[in-house]
Amino acid sequence: MEPALLLDAARSAQRDWATVPVTERLQFVRHARHALARAPVEFAGTVARAERSAADTLAMEVLPLLEAMRFLERRAARALRTRRADRSDRPLWLRGVTATIEPAPLGVVLVIAPGNYPLFIAGVQAVQALVAGNAVIVKPAPGERACLAALRGAFLLAGLPDALFQLTDDSVETASKLVAAGPDKILLTGSSATGRNVLRAAAETLTPTVMELSGNDVSIVLNGANPVRTAATISFAFALNASHTCIAPRRLFVERGVADAFIPALEERLAELAPMPVDARTRARLMPLLSAAASGGATWSVNFDTRAETSPPLLIKNAPDDAALHATDLFAPVLSLRVVDAWPEATHLANLQPHALGASVFGPRGEAAKVAAALDVGVVTINDAVVATADPRVPFGGKRQSGFGVTRGIEGLLELTYPKVTLDNRASFRPQLKRNSKRDEEKILASLVRLLHAGEHRRRSLRALLSAVVRKKKVVEPD
User: Fold this and answer.
1) pLDDT tens-digit series, residues 142-168
2) How far apart are CA 148 and CA 1, in angstroms?
3) Tell me, what's the pLDDT at 465?
4) Where is the active site (predicted)?
5) For all residues of the chain together, what is the average pLDDT?
6) pLDDT (tens digit, 9 = 90+) per residue, 264-309?
7) Domains in the chain, CATH or no CATH each
8) For residue 388, what pLDDT band results from cuts at 50, 70 and 90?
9) Residue 427 pLDDT
10) Over the range 412-439, which residues count as b (16 or more CB within 10 Å of their CB) and which as e?
11) Relative orientation angle of helices 192-203 and 172-181, to the nearest 10 degrees
């Protein structure tokens, strides 16, 4: 079906869906979650990533997705409630006016899915869009349509109208046509370069977007960190999903006092890892970056074969701080290490990087918390990396070239709504409708300003205002 027709069908279905109470929308989520959980291995098998085992997919995609769905079942109804503005903050001149704010659905949300976590990331975004009252169209990552078709099938079996959750083919051309057709919001998870292209196209229709873009994440190891456990954690996060993780550690700062114990432990862990796939495009991007870093004094202990489809982990030491390697988003098994005298140097260099998605800090909790506060990124983990970001309670998003807006958590749910405000004036006393001279209006308003905001002049201003408005006498300017 042509993108314009897809949008029309989705918009038509969404008008009715928006009137369905949130609690009823969540019934579809619950039924779909239960159905998927009854056959978890089969569901995991719909993800096509060849380098993964079923256990990996269950841990990285199926379980986090189902946890996110259950979180919505528990918390979404409260988050999407219409609220009344607090009367205690109501301006004096609006006495009698009530204000309500409703998180209203946007309409049709387009989700452009990534290839590294094709089920979890797009699945959470699609479910949040539906729970918020939108229709959703998902453009799957190349070769990864089956897993999202399984998710959609579970919703359709639960009774969801098919036009509310539509799945396209996986081509770039289809994505481009859908963006040009003008959905009501676009959620993109991808590289910084892809983000720029989608933003340019979305600008033509003024379509708002959430950009969940790549990172070049920093890890900081403090004096007092457990060197063996920290090395194991960083190695695990670095290798997770064959290093195809946007918040995997890529640049490592180690305080000098722990370096002698930590670096050998890390090298031992990295040496145990199997070579990881590196596609031809990434290899072509990586080679000039490595050459430039080497020219600046960087070294590494294993060879990078430009013709090989896999690579062992590359632990790069002594790369210049301004190396382009530190400013490039790559899905490749490359980790740059630098020893620093103290952590302020590390946070300063980290905050200069163009990407600002995530970071991790290892060490005593009090000191690590100070370091986390100094890092200018979207997500910081303390004494962990990557794994904690699957927490369904928290939003996920970055800054600068890592994008803007958030997905997941309550904040991600509210990203898929807009605040619809209703003001109801029940007051019979409306002095603004009276015919007063401009001079009288000036005196009344000046007295009102003094009454509300002039501190010690408030009492005299109140007498003047009452004299003018209530008793309809001439305003007497306070001394």
Assistant:
1) 999 999 999 999 999 999 999 999 999
2) 18
3) 58
4) 212
5) 92
6) 999 999 999 999 999 999 999 999 999 999 999 999 988 777 788 8
7) 3-214+408-420 (3.40.605.10), 217-397 (3.40.309.10), 430-469 (no CATH)
8) confident
9) 84
10) bbbbbbbeeeeeeeeeeeeeeeeeeeee
11) 40
Q: What is the pLDDT of residue 476?
A: 42
Q: Report the amino acid identity of residue 365.
A: R
Catalytic residue among 61, 144, 212, 255: 212
3-state per-residue secondary structure call for the chain: CCHHHHHHHHHHHHHHHCCCCHHHHHHHHHHHHHHHHCCHHHHHCCCCCCCCCHHHHHHHHHHHHHHHHHHHHHHHHHHCCCEECCHHHCCHHHCCEEEEEEEEECCEEEEECCCCCCCHHHHHHHHHHHHCCCEEEEECCCCCHHHHHHHHHHHHHCCCCHHHEEECCCCHHHHHHHHHHCCCEEEEEECHHHHHHHHHHHHCCCCCEEEEECCCEEEEECCCCCHHHHHHHHHHHHHHHHHCCCCCEEEEEEEHHHHHHHHHHHHHHHHCCCCEECCHHHHHHHHHHHHHHHHCCCECCCCCCCCCCEECCEEEECCCCCCHHHHCCCCCCEEEEEEECCHHHHHHHHHHCCEECEEEEECCHHHHHHHHHHCCCCEEEECCCCHHHHCCCCCECCEECCEECCECHHHHHHCCEEEEEEEEECCCCCHHHCCCCHHHHHHHHHHHHHHHHCHHHHHHHHHHHHHHHCCCCCCCCCC
Segment 342-347 shows an average pLDDT of: 97
Q: What is the per-residue pLDDT across 412-462, written as a single tens digit (0 to 9) for each?
A: 999 999 999 999 998 887 777 777 788 878 887 888 788 788 765 655 666
Q: Among this protein's residues, is 255 annotated catalytic?
A: no
| Cα–Cα distance measured from residue 453 to residue 475, given in angstroms and rounded to the nearest whole number | 18
